[in-house]
């Protein structure tokens, strides 16, 4: 009997793809040893009609799920085969936090991450024994959730990312994302550190998986002039007029927190930082929304790219099909044969002078994908409390979806975007090589390439060149305009003087 896969089976396929993909670990260059870690925590929210032992409503006399079937302490694959987990109304959700709004201005402006939507995590301390330990410690400190307990299991990790300044000129730190699964139907109540976190949100994974509805995917404007010249108002005004604003893609999500920090007022008026980019927003109808963008959006898209169909979906639903998107994300195409996580691959930072392949043929040389065929899911009716296997049909690797370039900004001035395209040939080659490395044959050279760092470096190199050209063109146009006006005034007054 063949039927549509449940959300739990899609999550299992996502985890299998994640564990089959060797994560890229970036070596810190000598010039910047700073690192940070974050935790991406998923849970399976039970169907509303399910009742669990010890959590029965008052007066309830119906069937309950006993405690020994909760799944606490199970491996992720055993947990995702439990009956209650595979209920069609059980919902996979991903945890986000909203950073606390800044209490006071910093250096003449509000804190850069004020009200930003993010994952729990933070900087690595000298006493931390590993990047994983940093993720565990920071999660405990910020939201009071102990990921080392039996209620949680680490599933894998995503590729590390480089965090840079606004134009990618300087490396700030390297970020290590870890993925965890809550193996319990009952989520512990977080204890939020009010100075760091204002709210916790569990967002359905389906809301974070492309394609997005037209009204859900939008952009957020960042005033780059406030970062290039934070103190000089005149220079900021000039830069704003010359280069405009950066526009980052973002997902609009309902602002419906599951937990609120003590003392935080949900009805407060959120003040946008001077450069823009707050995670809190009020739309035209007055409805409060969350804006997921930047690194948090990038890591989210990295994760869902491992889901079935994650590499083939378009980023936005075409207008003709808006409102008709599928919610199941396709059928899993991975076997439930349990594989251990692949050995991480160490790559060099894009800020190391030897980071990139020297031979031109090394880039984008992977042949076009020959993987094809339809993916089918075969689910047998269970004879036990756990679901049977999902049969593998296609071995195509996942991990790079339509959001590869979604986190890179555009500019509000069309001519700046044009010059970015002119200077972006190398960047487009990197992105093509990155995509081909996923869809084509698995090559050791591709696994050793820091694709995200290469894309970041080549893109912002094109941006810097484009901004220089745009500023020069605008300056020449302004000088030409002033010269033309001066010549016209001179001719006008000369003619007037001759008539007198």
From TrEMBL:
It holds the Pfam family NUDIX. InterPro entries: CoAse, NUDIX_hydrolase-like_dom_sf, NUDIX_hydrolase_dom. The chain crosses the membrane at residues 466-490. Keywords: Membrane, Transmembrane, Transmembrane helix. CDD domains: NUDIX_CoAse_Nudt7. Residues 71-226 form the Nudix hydrolase domain. SUPFAM superfamilies: Nudix. Residues 312-342 are annotated as: Disordered. Coiled coil: none annotated. Residues 323-338 have a biased composition (Polar residues). PROSITE patterns: NUDIX. This is Nudix hydrolase domain-containing protein. It comes from Vanrija albida. The lineage of its organism: Eukaryota, Fungi, Dikarya, Basidiomycota, Agaricomycotina.
